[in-house]
Amino acid sequence: MTTVIRTLLEDDREGHNILHEICMGIYLDGECYAFAIALHRGLGWPIIGLINGDIIRHTAVQSPDGILHDARGVISKNEFAAPFDIVPPHNLVEVSEEKLLRDGETNEIREASIQMARKIAEAIWPKLPWKESLASKVSAFADELEILCKKHRIWIRASFPATAPILAPSMDDEGGYILKPTADGLSFTIGRYFR
After folding, report:
1. Are 158 and 191 in contact (CB under 8 A)?
2. Bridge partner residues of 194 (DSSP)
3. pTM, whole model, 2 decimals?
């Protein structure tokens, strides 16, 4: 068997929706640059800036098929500028990460914001083609752990829910591990499933 990985949307639609609301509150205006950089790095898609005069007013990324993605998710070019009271025609141009640097912001603060944005984006939109996502890393780890468990006939489990995990002898009917997102969507729990 292989590792089964669940998503926040599958397991906790309300938690998913709350995380998305938090995402929009943080990354729609003000921190949109961190969100766009996170998506750009994680997906390899170009960053698109909404230009108002000589100011980059908002950012998103653009998929290979031309669709824009920001903290709201998929967004049309007409809706893209709506929250910022910019009337058409909209001036959308590709911008580099360097153009989005903020005066006085340290590299550490900027990178922490970008990393958090990526974790949140991966939890909200797990089906996007992420490069080396947390989910893919956790799944690969669990797959290797399963091989080790079968070899030694020892599995990780909890005696009771919410207790520390233990190493226990195989019951010979383990199918593998199942990974479920935590309530905040930013990490995963691990448990056995049976054949």
Report:
1. yes
2. 174
3. 0.84
